[in-house]
Amino acid sequence: MTDPTTAFDTNFDVSALALQLTTGSETVQAQTVEKLATLGTVGEELLMKFLLQRQSHPPTWIDGKAYQVLYSAESPETKEFLQTNFPTGIVQLNSEQGIDYTLLQKLLADQDFQAADRLTLQKLCELAGPAAVQRKWLYFTEVENFTSTDLQTINNLWLIHSEGKFGFSVQREIWLGVGKNWEKLWPKIGWKSGKNWTRYPNEFTWNLSAPRGHLPLSNQLRGVRAMASLLAHPAWER
Q: The domain that contains 218 carries what CATH number?
């Protein structure tokens, strides 16, 4: 027989967690998602309810963190919930150029950041046109002509599936914070240590233990001009 006191405490804790999830600061929300991830079915049900309540709003990285817990759970109930309510993922895949970002969302949901990074460059080349697709890298003048909608979609995918750590907007924030000084930016995002550039791919960190802004690599390996165009693009102006 269940001890009534124990049952009451558990119910109280779950109710408190539900309140923290919806009204707490980002830090509290993130901690609450992590706690709910340990509670099995009860936690999953609260996360599903939370995502449904949030569905009419643009997703944040907190929504992405909740989604990742359900995506990783792989129970029949969570699979059915995600397929019904988020069939292509949690980020709306908007494109003005007819680019399909479905696989990029899947790779990021799988936390396969290395494969997602390669695909990101491919998608940027698709945005630039057939010549860029063939050469597999970008001219900075091509970046200037990218649509804001597509860049924001790519950025949101990285941002929301990385707990807010990765994405062009994160790199831009850090870049502006160091006065647009590239030599100060590289060590902050883990692309350079002292005088030594981080070697691709083995010296890069392909998980969430990486420094903020570490990914995506975009066109960094071919110089700074394309990246400068990316970080200065009107897409990031609010």
A: 1.10.10.1770
